[in-house]
Amino acid sequence: MSGFTEPLRKWGLPEFRDTTVTYVNQIEVLTLHNAELAKEPLVERLRRAGGSRSCLLAAQTLRGCAHAERST
Q1: Do 63 and 42 meet the contact criterion of CB atoms below 8 Å apart?
Q2: Most exposed residue of 21, 41, 50, 60, measured as fewest CB within 10 angstroms of its CB?
Q3: Which region among 3-12, 24-33, 61-70 has the lowest average model confidence (pLDDT)?
Q4: Whether residues 48 and 30 fall in one domain
Q5: Are 32 and 20 within one domain?
Q6: Contact 51, 59 (CB under 8 A)
Q7: Are 63 and 46 in contact (CB under 8 A)?
């Protein structure tokens, strides 16, 4: 029996379907959350998380370097 059909035998179809729906819902929530985070600048996320000034400056430098690499 393949790995994919093992849960069907083990849990039964309703439990497998419920688990799958739960996973899909969690993925959708995480996708929306990640999209919101992507809109927020990295420095703001670090500041909100309580990052120190040196960490914020390093993040700004790294972000500038990453942007420069993508531009070339």
Answers
A1: yes
A2: 50
A3: 61-70
A4: no
A5: yes
A6: yes
A7: no
Each residue's pLDDT tens digit, 24-45: 989 998 888 888 877 877 767 7
Give this prediction's pTM.
Answer: 0.41
To 5 degrees, how large is the angle CA 35–CA 41–CA 42?
A: 100
Position 3 scores a pLDDT of 60
Domain count of the chain?
A: 2
Q: Under the phi-then-psi rule, with left for phi > 0, alpha for psi from -120 to 50, and beta for the rest, what region is 9?
A: alpha
Residue 64 has pLDDT above 50, yes or no: yes
Which domain range does residue 48 map to? 41-72
Cα torsion through 33, 36, 41, 42, rounded to 10: 10
